[in-house]
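Exam prep: given the inputs below (a chain plus adenosine-5'-triphosphate), describe the expected output before reading on.
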Amino acid sequence: MTERAIFEAEDVVKSFGGIRAVTGATMDVREASITALIGPNGAGKTTFFNLITGFYRPDRGRTAFDGRDIHGRPPHVIARLGMIRTFQLTKALTAMSVLDNMMLAAPNQPGERLSGTLLRPFAWRRREREVHAQALELLEIFSLTRLAHDYAGTLSGGQRKLLELARALMTQPRFVLLDEPLAGINPTLGARLLEHMQRLRREEGVTFLFIEHDMEAVMNHADRVIVMAEGRVIADAEPHAVRADAAVIDAYLGAG
Ligand code: ATP
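Solution:
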């Protein structure tokens, strides 16, 4: 983890009619960190993810990724910059093989830009081979190799979560956002997913921000924990400090 913030949000606000979902969230995420976003149910965590990845338009606030203003930018622009969130597989994707899902998640082929030159077929084939190799490597890491030719719809809930992360990694992102990656996943697959996040952070400097209710995983794997309650950030510290924070204990007990 470096001291540099790869992502910054300042006073982000969103209401739905009379419901104030995010009431002024300010935070930063340090580069190459694994940062957890926690908070009681209804604290505004998922809405915040939707706001910063362009799926909802904030009423107010400022967001920046890698020093660039991304406030109000559409999801595909934000994704292209290298800030990507995982998605649940849609109906169309579940009717496709696991491997095809991976191939489809790769960004546009650079060969397209070579259109009209003699190089094109070779560049395209080389690119396809690279994408194929990358897909197989990720499937191997996530223990999905033997399911590569099965329909994605036949995967268990946990295997789908792994495929969702593997798909996101096909874009070679710099900042990955995950909404409850461990929910519904068996502990072995969960441990594998966390190990893989640690390795990517360590070896490739990828940054992760994950929403999670599994406190053990948060305490053991996050470098930093940001706590939201009632639409804003009430704590931001290392795991052991957050666990002892009176405002955090209050927010959880109050929500219970
Ligand atoms: P959980 O941990 O239970 O997933 P959360 O922290 O992710 O909760 P959000 O799902 O962001 O919380 O919800 C924050 C508040 O905003 C809740 O009161 C919720 O009902 C409300 N809310 C979220 N999305 C919408 C929407 N599209 N329309 C109306 N209200 C919404």
